[in-house]
Amino acid sequence: MSSTFGRLFRITTFGESHGPALGGIVDGFPAGIRIDMDMISRDMARRRPGSTSLGTKRSENDIPEILSGVFNCVSTGAPIAFIVRNSNQISSHYDDIAHTFRPGHADYTFWKKYGIRDYRGGGRSSGRETLSRCFAGALAKQLLSQKGISVNAGVIAVGGVKASSYIWDPPFENELYAPDCPELPEMISRVEGARASGDSVGGIIECRARGMIAGLGDPVFDKADAILSMAIMSIGGVKGIEFGSGFAAASSLGSENNDQMTEKGFSSNNAGGILGGITTGEDLMMKIAVKPTPSISRAQQTIDENGNGKEIVIKGRHDPCIAIRASVVVEAMTAIALADMLLCKEAYSG
Amino acid sequence: MSSTFGRLFRITTFGESHGPALGGIVDGFPAGIRIDMDMISRDMARRRPGSTSLGTKRSENDIPEILSGVFNCVSTGAPIAFIVRNSNQISSHYDDIAHTFRPGHADYTFWKKYGIRDYRGGGRSSGRETLSRCFAGALAKQLLSQKGISVNAGVIAVGGVKASSYIWDPPFENELYAPDCPELPEMISRVEGARASGDSVGGIIECRARGMIAGLGDPVFDKADAILSMAIMSIGGVKGIEFGSGFAAASSLGSENNDQMTEKGFSSNNAGGILGGITTGEDLMMKIAVKPTPSISRAQQTIDENGNGKEIVIKGRHDPCIAIRASVVVEAMTAIALADMLLCKEAYSG
Amino acid sequence: MSSTFGRLFRITTFGESHGPALGGIVDGFPAGIRIDMDMISRDMARRRPGSTSLGTKRSENDIPEILSGVFNCVSTGAPIAFIVRNSNQISSHYDDIAHTFRPGHADYTFWKKYGIRDYRGGGRSSGRETLSRCFAGALAKQLLSQKGISVNAGVIAVGGVKASSYIWDPPFENELYAPDCPELPEMISRVEGARASGDSVGGIIECRARGMIAGLGDPVFDKADAILSMAIMSIGGVKGIEFGSGFAAASSLGSENNDQMTEKGFSSNNAGGILGGITTGEDLMMKIAVKPTPSISRAQQTIDENGNGKEIVIKGRHDPCIAIRASVVVEAMTAIALADMLLCKEAYSG
Amino acid sequence: MSSTFGRLFRITTFGESHGPALGGIVDGFPAGIRIDMDMISRDMARRRPGSTSLGTKRSENDIPEILSGVFNCVSTGAPIAFIVRNSNQISSHYDDIAHTFRPGHADYTFWKKYGIRDYRGGGRSSGRETLSRCFAGALAKQLLSQKGISVNAGVIAVGGVKASSYIWDPPFENELYAPDCPELPEMISRVEGARASGDSVGGIIECRARGMIAGLGDPVFDKADAILSMAIMSIGGVKGIEFGSGFAAASSLGSENNDQMTEKGFSSNNAGGILGGITTGEDLMMKIAVKPTPSISRAQQTIDENGNGKEIVIKGRHDPCIAIRASVVVEAMTAIALADMLLCKEAYSG
Asked: Chain C residues with CB inside 8 Å of B112's CB?
């Protein structure tokens, strides 16, 4: 089931970074919904290389073509397939690393698992795969918005510089897709500094869903937080996730961490909008740790397919901080997971 | 699919804390494996209330009965069903909270989702459900051990006191199930202090799998870390998970975080044993944040089913720190997820 | 997924004919439905050996115990687990065939697949497994009846004697569970004749669902007839299934077989209630071929586990015609499949 | 899961007959297999309209483009996506039936289910969807052929004319894709007669898999025959399926129907190669009933979306007997189901 996610709202993706095309199939999307193509384009543009001055200088012009499931701009209930043709892919950059494993990449594990790999640009493991998630995520957001639910993500820390205080007022229209905060200039210069030195930095993404409804998620294995964790940990480079008070809860007392209730509702939201795996109706709140871009231009020690030690210097134009462009992918996976839970809930509301 | 986890190695659980019995069905367990009942009993005993002096004083004597799938002590390939009868359940403790929502519990969300709930002891959301996971986890461990893989978890922080240094040498035979560390006495007294004051504390569990093989997990949605995250976030009270350097990766440089390789193997394991969603063969390393026990005997504000504000004082005998007994459940879910990935890998090794 | 059926309404079964118990877990059953235990008992009694004078003389007293998911006689939304203890199982009957394959049984294929088998009474392949289906089917029927859908099955042919004409007026309260027809006495004597001669006969079961609603099933792989076929072909001994005009359609003209429509609805129902995989709202109509009981007391040629030829005479008390007791199992699987489709449809009715 | 079939070997399809393109994604295909594109083309050509003089005169030139998962002609383990552009689709033929339901088609049920439909040529329900199955089926056959398993299907009856005797010697290179038999000329003239009179005929397809291995399929719900039934009943127009002696078993005695064994193997194959849901290693044998093409040029009574009665005469170029071209689709679905079972079996052979 590697390439499929979801139970009722299902996304199946395909494609390698240097093959003919990438794309996917969204199955289980309800009939009769008018599709906002501009909104899909905006999300895909935000993910696209070149979307921010802090990203890669590589520019890709990812225009999805819808092949099915939409008739006269309205969904028909049939699976919605889409493709994006690859272009501007310079495979020759990869020739000299065809048989060498880039540190921090899936090169080594692919080779161990499959005994074969499309070494050009990461192949199936490339970040380009996430364009399909953004397409599907945009559809999921349109479904959620009919129930009043919105999903937004922004960068709240890069390379150790954290936003100390911020108002959550998306969309975040700056180079970091970050909420406005005092540390924004320092965060930006941290990313630029990493690029200048041929290095990269990690970051933390916060994601919230507002206008939530209670009752999404199931009590045992399919807890809302379990499904969301799977959805988001499946994004390349994500190394951690927490809900509400998260790791801080581990240092707190029950009397501090419990969200007490009054007739006006919950007095706090340490739960992050989920209790016992089921949404409370409060804002869903998650924080996601993203590692530094593994592709750096500094010399690194590695080995080749024969196990021989080598020094590697990675060429090409890479993001100094993948957390920035990953924020829209986090939104997408959150929206897909929530849309799926919403449909599962509807099944029992009849 | 709420009550089922896994693709080939599958566990389905049932049962409420105050119903007649709990149990489950392990499907997809290979035929011909001699079942070590003692090992199952040890894992279930470690989860059981009363297993540690730092836990609840409530004592449960959870002896599983195997109903199928094992013939002459050997697995037959048929589903292995097991039940544990409930006893020593004092339902009257719950009478006065039958229509009131305990803060930090699933009471409110269950009621919103189902419009009905078995209010005795959390019903389906009770921690007692995890005994089924321990049973299945013990079976999964036996399968993994045939490949040389072992899974262990221990508590490395409680209520803000963190183990500063430790050697990973399981099993951890102390009241905390913690690796030996200088802070152990302080950690223990932190838990006892919380109990004495009618409060509770959170904690952090570390889990490692050793003897790992490369190639488990799939490249896109079914990444090893994605599946493990779902498995572990599905345990009640878990609020965060990280792999390898985890949230610290967000503060680091690519040149620091990448695990370089030499002819002797990986020079570090910031990846936590997973690259691109596929295991590297290095130790799997995870840290898990567990919130403080929500059941505390201090007065808290809440509401009842009619939305009226109330003060609540929770009676009964509860763990001051659920992270302690949760460690074996973390092991179980890790083992189940790995066993499932192992079978999926085998499907392509023919 | 061998032991689980369904997407939202899911049944997982366990148990061998001569183990401690059989049972299962029904997951995804909606909350708030009052459970009619008498109705469950009636269906299980109809399946039970000894229920009809035309069946085995072996008597089993299968009383299910519900272990979870029902609180004060009402479903809670949690999984409903149930077990039936085995008793009156005479394993010694099987000692002399422990290492010999009974013709027409799964003995040989189990041994080839697993290299081990519980040879007592068929183990996991025993018809006793279907008691779990009847339990789950009775629950499914209760869900369907809320929408006005009823499911009934009856025997319309045994050993070559076919009911020439009949009115569909269930329940069919005769020894064959057959609709009233001129051939009924001949059908009964055919079964009795087979028993007298140590032989067995096959039969055809007809199953109809009435009060159907349009829109169940999906257009491509999850067609209503595809899912129903899987559900019913998974019953041991079933060798064929057809919908509506079925195999007769292969001999007909399009102008004969198409169901024309007028303002009053469909003029005929050759489709059997399904067009393009989606229910029309007309009666669902299926016919199912069941092979003769493979356990016969006549001498047969077979081999043992070492491949040596042997003559075998099967002892024990066996049904001369399994189609008779299988009719309620056909109802059960039909109801389970329809309940699942119903919930899937509801997911998109919100 | 409407558009996905399979557990490990998975096919997801998309596309409408008159949209931009159709295609699909094959996920779970093993890495390292050299792909025979000619063989894929041959199977797709056999399905294609115009492939036989007995089919529609409509000609489609379906050349699949592979978008992913194949690198230097070898599978990489990544999902294999493919598309076929639509062309030569004359939508205007459908303008006058845009709001009228064609008898025997999914028009009515689609409209009832979705409240919207792409009325051009059946949309998602069009037989054109099966081109994706043929592509995936050809891949599955290549996987099976590595184990020595071959799958073939041929027409053995049309419009009531049955092949009385034949040797199974595929491929069947005549206009009917039928095994050589005395009735072949009569069968052909029956189809031509139906076309001449503006009518259509049904047919029976036989499908066999040879070189089978024992142990495919699981004992309970995922029986080999259950999965195959679902796979094949999901093909549009199929109304019945039987295995081995099938419906004839219902008229037989146990002593006739049981397949006895000697030291040389099974003495007969009434089981059709499956016992207790698990393959025996004998040839898999199925017969499939296909209804007459619902699109006929004779006047029929129907209603429109407002429920008003109308007479309809269907224009366009349609097959007089869809069983002919459906035979390769039956092969495809059989191969896909067997490939999936094969991988599931491999998971337990480690």
From this structure: none
- The domain spanning residue A165 has which CATH number? 3.60.150.10
What number of CA atoms fall less than 13 Å from residue D71's CA on the CB side? 21
Collapsing DSSP to helix, strand or coil, A300 comes out as strand
CA of B277 to nearest chain A CA: how many angstroms apart? 7
Chains linked to C by 3 or more Cβ pairs within 8 Å: A, B, D
Q: What is the rounded distance in angstroms from the CA atom of residue B144 to the CA atom of residue B149?
A: 5
Cis peptide leading into residue C171 (ω within 30°): yes
Q: Are the beta carbons of B170 and B159 closer than 8 angstroms?
A: no
Q: Which residues of B touch C114 (CB under 8 A)?
A: 31-32, 76-77
Contacts of B21 in chain C (CB under 8 A): 67-68, 81
Supply D126's token pair. Answer: 């069009």
Query: Cα distance from D210 to chain A (closest Cα, Å)?
Result: 29
Q: Contacts for A178-181 with beta carbons within 8 Å, 24 or more apart?
A: A178/A154, A179/A154, A179/A206, A181/A156
From first to last of its 350 residues, chain C has per-residue pLDDT tens of 689 999 999 999 999 988 999 999 999 999 999 999 999 999 999 988 877 788 776 666 788 999 999 998 999 999 999 999 998 666 666 666 788 999 999 999 999 999 887 777 678 888 999 999 999 999 999 999 999 999 999 999 999 999 999 999 999 999 999 999 999 999 999 999 999 999 999 999 999 999 999 999 999 999 999 999 999 999 999 999 999 999 999 999 999 999 999 999 999 999 999 999 999 999 999 999 999 999 999 999 999 999 999 999 998 778 999 999 999 999 999 999 999 999 999 999 86
What number is the ipTM of this complex?
Answer: 0.97
Determine the distance in angstroms separating the CA of D23 from the nearest CA of chain C, rounded to an integer: 13
3-state secondary structure of D189: helix
C159, D226, D252 from C193: Cα distances, Å: 10, 32, 13
Count CA atoms within 13 Å of residue D184 on its CB side: 14
Q: Judged by CB atoms within 8 Å, which residues 279-298 of C form the interface with B?
A: none
In degrees to the nearest 10, what's the CA dihedral of C297, C302, C304, C309?
A: 120
Q: Indicate the number of domains in chain C.
A: 1
Q: Which two tokens stand for residue D182?
A: 């005395």
Q: D76 near D31, Cβ under 8 Å?
A: yes
8 A C-beta contact, residue A49 and residue A325: yes
Q: How far is CA C225 from CA A346, C274, D232, in A?
A: 24, 7, 10
Residue A80 contacts C where some CB pair is shorter than 8 Å: no
Print the domain residue range for B108.
4-349
Residues of A in contact with B255 (CB under 8 A): 199-200, 296, 298, 300
Instruction: State the DSSP string of D277-324.
Output: TEE-SSPEEEEEEEPPPS--SS-EEEEBTT--EEEE---S---S-HHH
Window 82-121 of C: residues touching B by CB (8 A cutoff) are 83, 113-118
Interface test with D, best of A12, A33, A131 (most D CBs within 10 A): A12
Which tokens is B294 given? 């929500």
Contact D62, D146 (CB under 8 A): no
Query: Which of C229, A174, C65, B348 has its CA nearest to residue D286?
Result: C229
Which residues of chain A are within 8 Å of residue D15 when distances are taken between CB atoms?
Answer: 67-68, 81
DSSP-assigned states of every residue in C266-311: ES--TTTTEETTEE-SSPEEEEEEEPPPS--SS-EEEEBTT--EEE
- Whole-angstrom Cα distance, residue A163 to residue A175? 15
Please answer whether residues C274 and C212 qualify as being in contact, where contact means their C-beta atoms are separated by less than 8 angstroms: no
